[in-house]
Task: inverse folding
């Protein structure tokens, strides 16, 4: 997973891509993992920029047959995310933003580390359907964040769903509490790049190992979702239901085996498979069970299987 772009290289990338990432919070702690916005080398920046431009051209040339757009997605300073609600959330509840654990401004959680109810004033640029900034949202805390078994962060905002809807006309995306099926047509919606990637769920990975981290039951995309740096934390949206069924987080860039930026698949027998150029997301259907009345986190709730501190 990649590091954030430096200011100069970011300006070059924007000029070359013709599609600037939305300005979000001030630069956060550099992350070097998965599909965060990457600096690394000039080569990596050029590669990401070319891939971004190519993806945009391909998208523009294809007929629009899907209803998914960018409304409800957010841009972080180094990643993507979305304003989400759960099936039982109420309009009066404090709104939530979902992204990746490796996108936390406090740094990447180590294996076994879980961040719960930590104060945060991070800001997010809320996008409308066309990708224009509709508002700046602010967190009150990191409700939950981890890179153990999954790769997710959930921020609680200072605004309610009703307040956001009233001021912007934008509704939160609903997190599905049903496990997605292989073959499902999906869209990875990146608020950072203001770009949509369309493909299908190719299958599931018993264990996805990347450096010191291991993710369980990961979602593997078909090759059409060639996500790049900056797409970390993007919601993976079921094109039929428009619900969020996973959170985008990583991919094998160079064909290496089980290293950072090069996750490998491990089956139940311990066999390892490397799929260069293939990208992945993490399951989220278990998360709604962990949030109760008022969108309050309850890791002891029945059905909640998220790792505990």
Result:
């Amino acid at each position: 997973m990649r590091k954030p772009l430096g200011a100069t290289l970011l300006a070059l990338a924007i000029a070359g891509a013709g599609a600037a990432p939305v300005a979000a919070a001030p630069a956060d702690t550099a992350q070097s993992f998965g599909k965060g916005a990457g600096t690394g080398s000039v080569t990596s920046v050029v590669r990401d920029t070319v891939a971004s431009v190519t993806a945009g051209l391909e998208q523009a040339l294809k007929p629009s047959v899907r209803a998914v757009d960018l409304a409800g997605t957010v841009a972080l300073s180094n990643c993507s995310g979305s304003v989400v609600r759960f099936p039982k959330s109420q309009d009066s509840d404090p709104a939530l933003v979902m992204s990746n654990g490796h996108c936390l401004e406090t740094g990447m959680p180590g294996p076994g580390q879980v961040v719960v109810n930590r104060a945060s004033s991070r800001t997010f640029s809320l996008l409308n359907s066309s990708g224009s900034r509709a508002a700046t949202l602010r967190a009150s805390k990191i409700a939950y964040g981890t890179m153990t078994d999954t790769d997710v962060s959930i921020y609680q905002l200072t605004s309610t769903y009703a307040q956001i809807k009233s001021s912007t006309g934008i509704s939160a995306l609903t997190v599905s509490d049903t496990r997605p099926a292989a073959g499902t047509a999906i869209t990875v919606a990146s608020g950072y790049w203001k770009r949509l990637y369309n493909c299908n769920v190719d299958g599931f990975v018993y264990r996805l190992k990347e450096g010191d981290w291991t993710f369980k039951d990961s979602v593997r995309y078909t090759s059409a979702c060639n996500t790049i740096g900056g797409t970390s934390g993007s919601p993976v949206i079921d094109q039929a239901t428009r619900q969020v069924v996973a959170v985008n987080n990583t991919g094998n860039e160079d064909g290496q085996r089980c290293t950072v930026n090069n996750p490998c698949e491990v089956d139940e027998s311990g066999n390892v498979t490397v799929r260069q150029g293939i990208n992945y997301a993490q399951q989220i259907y278990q998360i709604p069970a962990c949030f109760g009345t008022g969108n309050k986190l309850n890791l002891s709730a029945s059905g909640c299987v998220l790792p505990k501190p």
About this structure: Residues 2-31, 39-46, 59-66 have pLDDT under 50 and may be disordered. The helical segments are 7-17, 42-61, 161-168. The longest strand covers residues 195-210. The chain is about 15% helix and 35% strand.
